[in-house]
């Protein structure tokens, strides 16, 4: 789960590709925040949805304008304080908002390190979910690591990240069709990286 999982490919990407990769991972994590937000009446999921839409619009070059620097404060205001919320759901919600915050940073200054952080954050989110939901006290640390690394959900996460990378590296530049497909892939019919959905 550590630095060796940071994908060296990220450091070869163009600026728009780093943004697209970051946006796709944020999109896939978004339901984790949306559901938490609705259940505990915290934050403004609709506002964050619009900001993430703004990132996709920028990638697709729709002409819509958004000041991403101004949005950073709005996103930050939605990060749940993990000391305030004792329930597990606050953790993936927190990850989702931090991912979006980092995505905006990548929009402002394309940084492979920041994109790699998002990739690791998404993996950690999945790992924690598997540990919380399936590991028990009887397992040794090695067994927990094996459980996580061989778990279907982690395999899906790795496959998703690889698929996003494959699609963006195959394209020379961002085009509307690619971004639309990438967005649909990441949206995953509203199901998050840990299988959460916020459809009422």
From TrEMBL:
InterPro entries: DUF416, YP001051499.1-like_dom_sf. This is YjaG family protein.
